[in-house]
Structure formats: structure tokens, C-alpha cells
Amino acid sequence: MATQTLQQHSHNEKAAPLGRQIIAQARVELLLTLRRGESVLITLIVPVLLLIFITSLNMAGALRAEVTLAAANGLYLLFLLLGGGILPLSHLPPTLAAIAQILPPAALTQALQATMSNNAPFPLNSLVVLVIWTVAILLVAIKTFKWE
């Protein structure tokens, strides 16, 4: 019965507009943040910037499905390594660590670590890096996107 209901709805429904998705994500983040007593500013800004950044990549329409999947998995693994998710950036070679500092994954990791730490300073540098990358990728997506 539940499977039948799910199948009926999945054929007729479309994804919500991007603006509505962003507002819904921000609302959920705000509710969770207020319940846990975290810094509202940091825990709202970082996920919204990340959401805009990821949706602006727009690889899905430009490449074949297999290529998109391979590229997304490769980027995920690379960003996991360079973002400090597996190893701290101090364990990377100095040149690679310096490059990683200006990439979005490291900035996101540092901002989230500051959010979860007591008395941590406001991660302004991380947020600036995220904003710059978000704007840059959004501008690239605007320039390169074409309706078929």
C-alpha cells in the first residue's frame, strides 16, 4: 500500500524551485540550530553557501550520466582529502596544504569545526573563501548554462 502510494506521487511531482529549496533548508537549519544552542550566524551561512555552491556546479546537464557520476565521486574523494576531513591539513605537504587552504572543502571544514567548538573565534577567513568560491561558480554557471 505504501509502495503504491509512493509510486503514484513520484510520477506526477516535480522538484520544488531552487528558491523554495534554499528557504526550506535555511528554515530546517535555523530550527536545529536554535534547539542545540549553536551560533546561528555560522550554522546558517555555511550550509546555505554550500547549497548554492553545489547547485551552481551544474555538471548534470552538460555531461553524460556516467561521466557526471565519475566526476562527482572523484571530486568528493579529492575534497575529502584536501578539506581536512581525513587528515588535518598540517599532515599534508606544505605546498598542497597551502593550496588546500583556498579551496572550499578546507574552508567548510574549518568553519564547521569553529561552529562545534566552544569559544572558537568567528571563522571569517573560511566564510570569505566560501563566499568567493560560491560567487565564482555561480557566475560560471550563469555564463555556461544553456537551455536546450
Give me some keywords for this one.
about 75% helix, about 150 residues, disordered N terminus, mainly alpha
* H and E order: HHHHHHH
Helix count equals 7
Main beta sheet, described?
A: none
Q: What portion of the residues fall into strands of 2 or more residues?
A: under 5%
User: What proportion of the residues is helical, as a percent range?
Assistant: over 70%
How does the helix and strand content classify structurally? mainly alpha
Low-pLDDT residue spans: 1-6
Strand element count: 0
Describe the overall structure.
This protein has 148 residues and is mainly α. It has one domain. Helices cover 73% and strands 0% of the residues. The chain contains seven helices and no strands. α3 packs parallel to α7.
Q: How would you concisely characterize the structure shown here?
A:
The protein has helices at 2-12, 18-36, 40-57, 65-82, 94-101, 104-116, 124-144. With 148 residues, the protein is an all-alpha fold. Helix 3 (40-57) runs parallel beside helix 7 (124-144).
Secondary structure elements and their pairing?
Layout: H1 2-12, H2 18-36, H3 40-57, H4 65-82, H5 94-101, H6 104-116, H7 124-144
Helix pairs in contact: 2-3, 3-6, 3-7, 6-7
